[in-house]
Amino acid sequence: MTSSSLVRGIRMASLVLATTVTAASVAGCTVEARTVTRITSTTQGSPLLAEVARQIALPAKTWTASGTHTAKGYTTEAAKTVNVEGMKADCVNININKKLSAQFRSDVFGPGMKGFFYKCQKAAPDTNRYWFTISSADRTQIDRLCDPTTRYPIVHDAQHDTYWIDEPFTCTTRTGPS
After folding, report:
1. Strands ordered across the beta sheet of 155-157
2. Number of other residues whose CB lies within 10 A of the CB of residue 83
C-alpha cells in the first residue's frame, strides 16, 4: 500500500467514523442488544469503527448537529494573552488526527454528548474555526448546543496547555432519530 492510498484510507475511515458518530451517541454506560446490532450493521467491514462504537457505547437513536464553531485560546485562565502556539498545535492536531470527544462539554450539557471535530483553521489572530458533528440521545442537549445564547465557561486543555473560551456553535444541519 502506498502512503497516499494509506492517507486516503485514513480519511475515508474518518468520514465513516463521522457518519457513525452522527448516527449515534452515549445514553449511559449500559449497551443494549439493539444498539450493538445497529452499530455492527453501520460499521460492517470496519473492525476499527465497530470497536470504537462499542467502546463508546453508541445508542441506536440520537439527535445530531453539524456545523462550525469558533474558540479562542489563552495562556492563562485570566484570558488576557492569546496562546498562539497552543491554538496552532490544536489545529494541526485536529487536521491530522481528528478528535472524538466521548463526553463533550459535560460541564455545560451534562453526560451523553459525543463530539467529533474533523477540520480546523485559523479564523483570526486569536480565534480558531472548527468543523464538528455532535450527537446525543437527548434532544434538549442538541437544542442547547445550537442555541446562540449558550455560554461556555473557560476550560483548560492540558495537551496544548491552553485555556479555551468556546464561542456559540453554528448548527447548519440537524437530524433526529429515524
Report:
1. 99-101, 114-124, 127-136, 63-74, 162-175, 155-157
2. 22
Decide: 14 and 100 in contact? Cβ < 8 Å.
Answer: no
Q: What is the mean pLDDT of each run of 10 residues along the chain (178 residues)?
A: 35 37 31 35 70 77 94 97 98 96 94 95 97 95 97 96 97 91
In sequence order, the 6+-apart residues with CB closer than 8 A to the CB of 6 are: none
Question: Cell 437530524 maps to which residue?
Answer: 175
CB 128 within 8 A of CB 58: no
Question: In this structure, is the dihedral angle defined by the CA atoms of residues 138, 143, 149 and 152, taken in order, positive or negative?
Answer: positive
Q: Print burial letters for 62-73: b (CB count within 10 Å at least 16), e (below 16).
A: bbbbbbebbbbb
Residue whose cell numbers read 470496519: 46
Give backbone dihedrals phi and psi of 60, rounded to 5 degrees, phi first: -75, -35
Q: Tell me the whole-structure pTM to 2 decimals.
A: 0.74
Distance set, CA 12 to CA 8, 142, 173 (Å): 6, 26, 21
For residue 7, give Cα distances in angstroms to 14, 58, 97.
10, 26, 11
